[in-house]
Amino acid sequence: MTPLDRRGFLRTGTVAAGLAVTPALAPNRAEARAARRYRRSLPAGWTYPVAEELLPFGHGVMSGDPLADRVILWTRLTIPDRRGWDASVVRDPQGFRRVTVRWVVARDPGLRRVVRRGRVTTTAARDWTVKVDADRLPSATTLYYAFEALGWRSPVGRTRTAPAPGDDVGSLTIAHFACTSWWHDVFNSFARVAERNDLDLITHAGDHVYDNSGGHPASRVWADQWSWDTDVDNADVRTPAELRRRYALYYADPQLMAAHHAAPWAIMADQHDYDPSSVDGVTTLSTEQAGRVFFEWTPVRPPLPDGSGRFPTSPGPRRQVPLPRGEASLLSYRVLPFGDLADVVLLDVRRFAGRDGEVSQVLGDRQWAWLERTLLDSRDRAAFRVVVNQVNLGQLRAFNLPAASAFAQAFGMDPNAPQGELYTTAWGGQPAERTRLLSWLREQGILDNVVLSGDSHGFFGNDLVEDPQLPAYEPLTGRGTLGAVGVEMVGSTAGRPGGQDVIAEELYFAAVGGSRGAAFADAEGFDTQYRPAALAPTLTLETAARVANPHLRYFNWRADYGHTIVSVQPDQAVIECWSTPQRVVATDQTLLAQHTTARGAPHLAPVLSPEPVTGPRRGRRAPRPRVRRASS
């Protein structure tokens, strides 16, 4: 299939089977009048990214942060207005200052067997987003949900509540992503994950959206010869309005939207999600403003503002989830209990690092204390801990790097370090704190930890141990005088360049004398000439890294972009690395590697003849995205 033009790509994949009309979301007279006023057509010159055929729900629906009895539900209304798309400027599009939005949760895709329903209002103050905490739900249950507003029914999403203690669920199946770049990948991995009917959760370790394209060869650009200087959505994000628009660009994508509709998400932001911006020395986007937009546009459950990591009670069926302000907009570390099998622990190594006077220079002292309490509680309740962590926790020690300066720029590495860590951000920049954490886990007997990380743009599979050399660590078994206290898989990316592409870019720039961004519209030439030339040095680099780091059980820094699947079972966890095509929409996917780690004996053991893992649940898929007229 050839790449699609931008408008075509945003509007594909949305024909579907119809939904039965149900009185679950019946409007009142005022809402009926609003429906008659609302105009779905886009004004001439409209540029805001949106799936037009789904209006007013032009960015679909999404759920997240499931607990045993509640889950966050999200959507956004688009009200086209000839004055523009910026809600901070046009606060009354088409004369609307507020809109009533109804929501419903049911046991079936037709929304007949209703479990919970409610009604809230939204305004321009929260960019017309809707975020409700649907409570009083049955545990470990696949559910379906939808919204209704302005005379239209949203697409139906599928979600799932977490198991409660004692629920017999057999296993948990999690899909994991990191570093999602709209420009550099057409999001095939999200479509493959959306096709599964066994997922309990989708996790994302950060850079859920990017504030800039980075100038790398762009999958969505090269076939149409766009200029990377003139496309409005290729500019660096400078204001809250532009950051909101960046989420809109991503969420209008049909492949990502399908994954949003398929299962609940648990997202931890990395640095690009929160990057501040300034113009001529004047701040135009603060970190706290970026945090507010993150909470507006994601189904992340805001913890209490006291830093305890605990959640407030649901505000009920007729109130939106309050958006955190100020310092509270930085707080997103939290834990999602999944019954007796696992706790999903989301760490933040970005927002609280490097604070003067604090012992923990990665997590900050308050988050460190929360983590200790959380893990001790989990040890006594759950078989495994699945830890979502933005940046590699495992060591990466010295080896020779081709294109050393490029790696230093791309990944924060110090190629000149004769000893110690190459990765100079987060845990790599504070190796003593990593040792402190891993030693504490050993002392407390908290061994069955599966860490899912991001940031490095490749698959890095580690046994987690303070000292990865003999006799402290024995690489064939994970044992030794110390032995591993868990395992880690750094997931690949949805297109953000890894080792092979960083080397290929250096070769390209040297050949054409171009600056970063020279290959932005030449992915075809880049792929046919420079990627192949970069493969041999990449394989050499991988081999050197494995020799220097015996705990590095799997390393793939090639141009294999995709996702990770984790199956948590009572006696083991199974971890799979998958890749999908990057440049064109396609249905292929490749299982690159499968590993297991046994409960009580953490160690990434390769499966030589892998069979893809599937979870025990077979809930019906949500209908393909479609809006329909509201019930009357």
Fold and architecture overview:
With 632 residues, this protein is of the alpha+beta class. The chain has two domains: 6-169 and 207-267 and 269-332 and 618-629, Immunoglobulins (Immunoglobulin-like); 365-606, Purple Acid Phosphatase, chain A, domain 2. Helices cover 22% and strands 22% of the residues. Strands 11-10-9-21-22-23-24 form a seven-stranded mixed beta sheet, with helices on one face. Helix 4 runs parallel beside helix 7 (287-297) and helix 12 packs across helix 13 (523-548). The longest helix has 26 residues, at 523-548.
Oligomer, anyone?
single chain
Number of helices: 13
CATH superfamily of the largest domain: Immunoglobulins
Tell how many strands the DSSP assignment holds: 25
CATH level 1 class label of the largest domain: Mainly Beta
Structure at a glance:
This protein has 632 residues and is α+β, with helices and mostly antiparallel strands. The chain has 13 helices and 25 strands. The strands form five sheets. A seven-stranded mixed sheet has the order 11-10-9-21-22-23-24, covered by helices on one side. The chain has a seven-stranded mixed sheet with strand order 14-15-16-17-19-18-20.
